[in-house]
């Protein structure tokens, strides 16, 4: 890292197309101006760190969503094919039928 001492109104050049202007020096801070081509991104470090953290969290949420969706799709395909995750045929479920009228021989007849 190069460390330079500058006074208000002085400049620092970086390459041919970037100029740093020391605008003002206050108590505990320095105001600077940056002249650079439009294709050069200029951001405060804390902003870059926050963006990176938010992108990381969004990527985790997206991954969890994708894993969940893939699992649901896999389960749907297995149900349609009649297999289980182990590859064994799925057990058939018995359909429970409730009679609409009492069965013959029912002791609760009126």
UniProtKB/TrEMBL annotation:
**Region (Disordered) location:** 74-110
Q: Name one GO cellular component term.
A: cytosol
HAMAP family the UniProt entry points to: CsrA
The organism's taxonomy opens as: Bacteria, Pseudomonadati, Thermodesulfobacteriota, Desulfobacteria, Desulfobacterales
Complex formation: Homodimer; the beta-strands of each monomer intercalate to form a hydrophobic core, while the alpha-helices form wings that extend away from the core.
> Which family, according to UniProt?
Belongs to the CsrA/RsmA family.
The record's function comment reads: A translational regulator that binds mRNA to regulate translation initiation and/or mRNA stability. Usually binds in the 5'-UTR at or near the Shine-Dalgarno sequence preventing ribosome-binding, thus repressing translation. Its main target seems to be the major flagellin gene, while its function is anatagonized by FliW.
GO biological process per UniProt: bacterial-type flagellum organization; mRNA catabolic process; negative regulation of translational initiation; regulation of bacterial-type flagellum assembly; regulation of carbohydrate metabolic process
Mainly resides where?
Answer: cytoplasm
Keyword field: Bacterial flagellum biogenesis, Cytoplasm, Repressor, RNA-binding, Translation regulation
Q: Please, which domain of life does this record's source organism belong to?
A: Bacteria
- List the GO molecular function terms: mRNA 5'-UTR binding
* Classification via NCBIfam families: csrA, PRK01712.1
Which Pfam families does this chain map to? CsrA (PF02599)
* Name used for this protein in its record: Translational regulator CsrA
Subcellular location, record wording: Cytoplasm
Q: Which SUPFAM superfamilies match?
A: CsrA-like
